[in-house]
Specification:
The protein is of the alpha+beta class and about 150 residues long. The chain is built from three helices and five strands. The strands form two sheets. Strands 1-5-2 form a three-stranded antiparallel beta sheet, covered by helices on one side. α1 (about 15-25) packs parallel to α3 and α2 packs across α3. The longest helix is centred in the first third of the chain and has 19 residues, at about 40-60.
Length: about 150
């Protein structure tokens, strides 16, 4: 464990630690940072697998990343644009009678053929967060799934 890497025995695991765990598992040298210029092709591959598996795991929807009654309010133009980190969207029960979908990052009313809204839409939204912002057990799950993918590639 390196003193300047931010790794501690009791603190939460870091993305750097996860990358190095994958590298050690296949007999490759560890990296000191996640700066692309400092990483060889194998280290970049480990980082890519971790990012992919993070998206997969977080897309399942967990207590930490799912909002069950998100009130989505139209902006000044009447559009409801969702943040880029939204992984899944479905209507909450109190808006379930509406025929709304997600198109190009904004809500779209299929029945009325418009992306303009005059009232709040309630939704169940699953978000994706950066590795350092998710609970430790989920980090471990991502690491384990990444190990299976990375080790077999």
């Amino acid at each position: 464990m390196s003193i300047d890497s931010g790794e501690t025995a009791t603190g939460p695991s870091t993305l750097l630690e996860a990358v190095n765990t994958l590298l050690r598992a296949v007999g490759s040298a560890e990296v000191m940072s996640l700066a692309t210029i400092d990483m060889d092709q194998r280290a970049q591959g480990a980082l890519q697998v971790l990012n992919e598996q993070s998206r997969v795991v977080q897309s399942e929807g967990w207590h930490f990343n799912e909002e069950t009654e998100a009130a989505l309010v139209p902006n000044a133009e009447g559009r409801i644009v969702l943040p880029l980190n939204v992984r899944a969207f479905r209507l909450a029960p109190r808006s379930a009678d509406r025929n709304i979908t997600l198109r190009a990052g904004a809500l779209y009313d299929i029945e009325n053929g418009t992306d303009r809204f005059t009232s709040t839409v309630y939704a169940i939204i699953t978000y994706a967060f950066e590795f350092q912002d998710i609970p430790e057990p989920i980090r471990w799950d991502i690491g384990c799934k990444s190990g299976h993918v990375f080790g077999s590639g």
